[in-house]
Design goal:
The chain is mainly alpha-helical. The chain contains 5 helices and 2 strands; from the N terminus they run αββαααα.
């Protein structure tokens, strides 16, 4: 007997003029749509990559355009993602500790500051610092401190992440 062969529970999702689905049918419907969406996303990306390769063999960063028949214009936004990394030859500050990206970025900023009169100005404009909240530390806060912190944060529910786990064989 499969997970969806169980007796149906009382449906809580009835809509007028539409037969309600059992919770098991809802899961089966969701799983079907999830698989269809995953396949569609993969197929769309492959088609997009093929079109990009066919029309923009050597794209430049920014908007690339190609005139099509009938007055249509194919536009492609091309970008490059850059992120800081630890250089392969970056020295360890401690024999037991691997250098972090933060260590490398701080070193880079210092090198830029020492390199020229404009180095400090360039470092400040080049490197952007982002603040993020530590969820684990937030959960540990006592109520009085959490009340203070809550004035400075916005909380929104995330979209649920679902997974259908097959039974172990």
């Amino acid at each position: 007997m499969g997970w969806n062969d169980e007796p149906a529970a009382q449906p809580q999702n009835a809509q007028p003029n539409k037969p309600a689905m059992s919770p098991e049918q809802l899961v089966a419907d969701w799983e079907s749509k999830q698989l269809t969406l995953a396949a569609a996303k993969e197929a769309e990306k492959a088609a997009r990559d093929a079109v990009a390769k066919a029309y923009f063999a050597n794209p430049r960063v920014g908007t690339n355009k190609h005139d099509l028949t009938g007055g249509y214009v194919l536009k492609m936004q091309h970008g490059v993602t850059r992120k800081f990394v630890v250089p392969t030859n970056f020295p360890k500050s401690h024999p037991d500790k691997e250098p972090t990206v933060t260590d490398a970025v701080e070193h880079l900023a210092e090198r830029l500051r020492r390199s020229s009169n404009e180095g400090a100005f360039i470092a400040d404009r080049l490197i952007k610092y982002e603040y993020s909240l530590s969820e684990s530390e937030y959960k540990k806060l006592p109520d009085d401190l959490r009340k203070i912190v809550d004035e400075y944060i916005e909380s929104k529910p995330k979209t649920p992440i679902m997974e259908l786990v097959e039974p172990k064989k």
